């Protein structure tokens, strides 16, 4: 009997099937993301180095414009802090503002066309004519785009945090709770970007037109970000102190203030019906000024809760998108 020799099976890691299709469709976005990350890395490296040199040469580490630290009250220190804020501080603020726009840009530019372009161009018919189920096709598109978005947003958040860290809360005037940092210097940025991607994908699936889906995505993501900012102080337990907000250290976030009466009733400044806080104090005898605040140690719990909320909502919207596409193409 003659033995039949079988050629050895060569395993290849080259993308095939859906993986190949996802790579072909997202390749321009991947290359664009790499270029953006390279530019951001170079910019963060330069900015970090410049900040460290300026702070060290002027001796303003830990100094704010108003500081009780004797070392920060030396001649020329306050002027140096102001110079830093007008230069590197403005760059940090501008970078934070641009990163705040990132979720809407990714949601509209990547999420909305994800399925809307398939309807407009009719390419979904060719894909589904192969041995691919509708659910698997949509899940593959969402997963591939989600991986790209999470890596890009996560890397940009890390770079921004690294660039912000030398000046932190005091020198730069950009506190950990500020709108320029909280949503852009931690995992919340990646979670919000994934939520925006899910919003865009669902809008594209429902509207089946790219431009209307992009417009709707920008509006909805903006509203979601505004809602997150409004509820953020209440996502984790806060502290109430009998101290005016103006007397708190820079590392604390005083988000509500007013007067507290002897019976424990809180009366916000704008709730007593009088034009000036002093009038409120005179009206309610025995009351004291209070501030509801978060300390710097609350940063990561707040980040964790908000990140979990965004990821949960993103998963829910993705499930709705998959179910909608499966039903519409059934």
Task: Explain this structure.
One of its GO terms (molecular function) is ABC-type transporter activity. This is ABC-2 family transporter. The chain crosses the membrane at residues 29-47, 91-116, 137-160, 189-207, 214-231, 304-325. With 330 residues, this protein is of the alpha+beta class. Helix 2 runs antiparallel to helix 4 (134-164), helix 5 packs antiparallel against helix 6 and helix 5 packs parallel to helix 8 (299-328). Helix content is 62%, strand content 6%. The protein has 2 domains: 19-234 and 298-328; 253-294, no CATH class.
Notable characteristics:
four-stranded antiparallel β-sheet; 330 residues; single chain; 2 domains; 6% strand; 62% helix
How do the helices and strands follow one another from N- to C-terminus? HHHHHHEEEHEH
According to DSSP, the number of beta strands is 4
Rg, alpha carbons: 26 Å
Instruction: Report the major sheet.
Output: 4 strands, antiparallel
Order of strands in the sheet with most strands: 1-4-2-3
What is the mean pLDDT? 87
The coarse silhouette is flat
What is the rounded distance between the termini? 53 Å
Number of domains: 2
Question: What does this entry show, briefly?
Answer:
The chain crosses the membrane at residues 29-47, 91-116, 137-160, 189-207, 214-231, 304-325. By secondary structure, this protein is of the alpha+beta class. It has helices at residues 17-58, 77-121, 123-128, 134-164, 187-207, 210-231, 277-283, 299-328, and strands at 239-241, 253-260, 266-268, 288-294.
């Amino acid at each position: 009997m003659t033995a039949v020799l079988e050629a050895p099976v060569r395993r290849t890691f080259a993308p095939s099937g859906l993986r190949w299709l996802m790579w072909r469709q997202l390749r321009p976005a991947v290359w664009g993301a790499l270029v953006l990350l390279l530019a951001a890395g170079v910019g963060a490296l330069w900015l970090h180095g410049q900040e460290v040199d300026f702070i060290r040469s002027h001796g303003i580490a830990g100094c704010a414009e108003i500081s009780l630290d004797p070392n920060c009250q030396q001649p020329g220190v306050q002027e140096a802090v102001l110079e830093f804020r007008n230069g590197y501080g403005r760059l940090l603020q501008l970078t934070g503002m641009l990163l705040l726009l990132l979720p809407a840009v990714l949601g509209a530019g990547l999420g909305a066309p994800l399925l809307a372009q398939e309807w407009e161009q009719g390419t979904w018919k060719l894909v589904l004519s192969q041995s691919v189920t509708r659910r698997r096709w949509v899940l593959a598109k969402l997963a591939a785009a989600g991986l790209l978005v999470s890596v890009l947003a996560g890397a940009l958040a890390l770079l921004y945090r690294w660039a912000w860290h030398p000046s932190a809360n005091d020198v730069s005037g950009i506190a950990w709770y500020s709108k320029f940092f909280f949503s852009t210097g931690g995992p919340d940025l990646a979670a919000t970007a994934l939520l925006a991607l899910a919003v865009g994908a669902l809008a594209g699936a429902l509207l089946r037109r790219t431009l209307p889906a992009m417009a709707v995505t920008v509006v909805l993501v903006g509203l979601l970000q505004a809602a997150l900012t409004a509820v953020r102080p209440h996502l984790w337990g806060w502290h109430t102190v009998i101290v005016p907000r103006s007397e708190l250290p820079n590392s604390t976030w005083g988000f509500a203030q007013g007067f507290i009466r002897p019976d424990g009733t809180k009366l916000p400044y704008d709730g007593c019906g009088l034009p000036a806080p002093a009038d409120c104090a005179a009206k309610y005898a025995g009351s004291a000024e209070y501030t509801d605040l978060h300390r710097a140690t609350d940063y990561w719990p707040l980040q964790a809760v908000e990140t979990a909320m965004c990821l949960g909502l993103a998963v829910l919207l993705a499930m709705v998108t998959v179910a909608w596409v499966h039903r519409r193409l059934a």
